[in-house]
Specification:
Length: 322
């Protein structure tokens, strides 16, 4: 029951998140926030789930994966099939979407996670493209024309999924399993020499990250009236990767902040897609020059509010404590 042993900062974060949920819900039901801003908030929440799920793979375990859009696509179409073809509720669609994406993560993870660095990046990129091309040729889900989906995604659903995603990944990161993943990120050879089953933990991180990407895919699918395989190209994978890099590799709250910031920018520049990509590029260039460790580096927001001692922060951990 590690989750019940967290710091006061953690419980304060949970309390603030419920206050935020209540405020947003009141603004939506009161009509103060119109459908434009509601859609932006939902899209922001989906991006947070994607960023946090990839944070576990890249930021914590150190596996450079650029095929996350493939898991998003698997979750989106699996969830849409459950709700639209089999007429089951959204909860079942999200759960099945996450499970199918996790299975896909295991399928691609076991043979490819023995690769490292650029080779792993190329393999995961190839996986994302294979998924997209396979969906293009399946008539059952509409092929290239895509699949019509009923709008079911709402703010409470998105908030609940964000909360579960952050709690699970944060708790995993602060457990002994998470420490093993961090040791792999720091030095895989040394971790292997210390008896850590590096392949097992890399696959586990990949599967958990893919599961939550599948959940995000289900929310994504039911936030639009039609989904197409072309929505899940490699550019989408780079979008998610930018969230993690901009936030700071190893910082969960940094990934969340970057997802919020870039979603706002993307929403206001959606009529100018070329300008949006130019803006993204400029942000990354400036970040690499002046703050290559990202917005938060490896620190978390809660660490900013902790008392400092002469020897450093109170918990002495700058890497994963949220």
């Amino acid at each position: 029951m590690t989750i019940f042993k967290q710091s006061k900062g953690f419980w304060l974060s949970v309390l603030l998140s419920f206050i935020l949920f209540t405020v947003v819900q009141l603004l939506l039901t009161g009509g103060i926030l119109n459908s434009y801003y509601e859609n932006m908030i939902i899209f922001m929440g989906i991006n947070i789930i994607l960023a946090v799920s990839l944070h576990l793979i890249i930021g914590i375990t150190g596996q450079f994966s650029i095929g996350h859009a493939g898991f998003l696509a698997v979750g989106a179409f699996a969830s849409a099939v459950i709700t639209m073809k089999l007429e089951m509720p959204l909860f079942a669609g999200l759960l099945v979407g996450g499970i199918v994406a996790a299975l896909a993560g295991m399928l691609i993870g076991i043979p490819t996670l023995r690769l490292k660095g650029d080779y792993l990046a190329i393999a995961t990129l190839g996986f994302g493209e294979i998924v997209r091309i396979v969906f293009l040729n399946i008539d059952y889900i509409g092929g290239a024309s895509g699949m019509q989906v009923t709008h079911l995604t709402t703010w409470p659903w998105v908030f609940g999924c964000i909360l579960i995603t952050i709690l699970v990944i944060r708790n995993f990161t602060n457990s002994s399993h998470g420490r093993a993943c961090i040791s792999i990120r720091e030095d895989e050879t040394a971790a292997d020499a210390m008896g850590i089953n590096t392949t097992y933990y890399k696959v586990a991180a990949f599967v958990i990250g893919a599961f939550f990407a599948g959940i995000a895919g289900g929310l994504w699918a039911h936030n639009f009236y039609i989904i197409q395989p072309s929505n899940f190209g490699f550019l989408k994978s780079f979008d998610i990767l930018i969230f993690v890099v901009l936030g700071g590799l190893g910082s969960l709250s940094g990934a969340v902040l970057a997802a919020i910031l870039l979603t706002i920018v993307s929403t206001f520049l959606q009529d100018y897609p070329e300008t949006r990509m130019l803006f993204y590029s400029l942000i990354l260039i400036v970040m690499m020059i002046y703050r290559p460790q990202g917005l938060m580096g490896t620190r978390e927001l809660t660490s900013l509010f902790k008392r400092k001692t002469k020897g450093g922060s109170k918990d002495g951990n700058h890497h994963t404590t949220a």
